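Table S2 (continued). Query chain:
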Amino acid sequence: MATSLKDFGQSIWLDFISRKMITTGELARLIRDEDVSGVTSNPTIFEKAIDGSNDYASQIEEIRRESPDLPARQVYERLVTKDIQDVADILRDTYKRTRGADGYVSIEVSPGVSDDTNATVSEARHLWEAVGRPNLMIKVPGTGAGVPAVRALTAEGINVNITLLFGREMYEAVAGAYIEGLEDRVGRAGSAAAIDEVVSVASFFVSRIDTTVDKLLDEKAKRTTTDSERQRLERLHGKVAIANARLAYERYGKIFSGPRWEALAAKGARKQHLLWASTSVKNPRYRDVMYVEELIGPETINTMPIETLTAFRDHWEARATLAADLPGAQATLADLESAGISLRQVTDDLIVEGIKKFQEPYDKMIASLAIR
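Corresponding output:
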């Protein structure tokens, strides 16, 4: 009987980071006792950790004494870099034990460069060198500018976590960019050793899709005049994000197979695994571990905030679900389109909204650090 997600070939990463979690040994405990094998971060997480506590007060004061004229953005980078380095070191045993298949921590480029390919590449290079750990991933938003950045960074041997992926079209674009980057690296280096340590994940967001789609369904239900149509709309609630993710996983299987991929795999290339992000349930009507239980399958990662991880440990149902009922997933998305809701429009809007949601806490944190 399955007792953990590892039994299904899925990893658990923690979607949270703080200095207190590092210094108290709580992160080490989660890795030891709760099967956590990676950590993700973003500007919102760091804003909560830095601006929402006094855990960093002594570090900030030390930096202020040593470098009183240091800009707030560089103060932020020092604080974050230290956390990321410490987490990478805590995860180093996992990284070594899995031979680089797991044990990563992610740090994100600043939201302000999301529409600038060159700036994204430049900042990613800087963070990669500043942290200086092999089990680091640089998070790059899945925007039009992010796609060529993924290719360029992969070609340089920098591990990339593509974040804020909502649509399957953009997912396919960044998966293709990863493959192209590996091919560029092979052509540049001319040896199998050039690509066997390059790792990437594609962070596919789920709950935010249902939050948006459910609101649109409610608006349509208010305007409908028939009970049958109202019931049809109601049946789509809480179904779209999981259907979208399952079809992305189906596409993953096709992208990372066949002659083109096999040629790279023969040289040591690693598949770019899908990572399920935004897995906390926002609607109290839904089971609080829905975005874990419904997306269980091999060669994937689920990154969970603390609350979701706790709920998961308390009452999860062990079953392989990710490849289940693909025709049903296709039917769900077809029903959504026939209801007059464009999933493509929803996902396009969500990437813009997602960057804004990262930019606002980032700006707030920088302003707070400047004052402090």
